């Protein structure tokens, strides 16, 4: 797993609405020196739990690539409609 994806996943498990993990020291940002352990007081009446990952802001380059991909996908749909 990539470092950025691991940080986002740990942040969502420890700092989100549903806290499955405990983070030491407490805070919103995940640092390499932070430690995590299972939250033994965690309870949820539902059988399944949906845990959303926290999204990082896209860089300018990623935003440009995404825009280009969307444009090319739309171009095929426009051609098909014509």
TrEMBL record:
GO biological process: ubiquitin-dependent protein catabolic process
SUPFAM superfamilies membership: Cullin homology domain
Gene3D superfamilies in alphabetical order: Cullin, Chain C, Domain 2
Domain Cullin-like alpha+beta, chain residue ranges per copy: 2-42
GO molecular function, one term: ubiquitin protein ligase binding
Protein name: Cullin-4
Gene name linked to the record: CUL4
